[in-house]
Amino acid sequence: MMKFTVLGIPVAKGRPKFAKRGNFVTSYTPQDTVNYENLVRLSYQQSCNELRVLQGEVSMKIDAFFPIPKSTSKKKHQLMAIGAIQHTKKPDADNVAKAICDALNKIAYVDDSQIVSLEVNKYYSDVPRAEITITEVKHE
């Protein structure tokens, strides 16, 4: 099992952008997505003592913590901080997972198609971050 934390506000995978260059159209990934994927890779490499690329089936759990809005009342702030009120705003959980899963391709596992189980939870917190747990699925 590999467990690590990515500090900062979790970022959703952005849709590819297209640009016309002369007679050709090229696609590129938005810079916010590129920066976040690099941060995920760096956090993984710094946190995991045993860096090995998993070959088999993988299970992943992502707990994404988003900042509590400043306009929130004290009572609601407390409820958000303890998880009684969960994050239901954008970004979507699946897009946050996509950014993290894509970032870990070829460094945590060969390809994100190996992920057979994925759990994503969104919470509020005073410390925005993403806590990621990757487990190799063992069949007995």
From TrEMBL:
One of its GO terms (biological process) is DNA recombination. Signal peptide: none annotated. GO terms for molecular function: magnesium ion binding. This is RusA family crossover junction endodeoxyribonuclease. It comes from [Eubacterium] hominis.
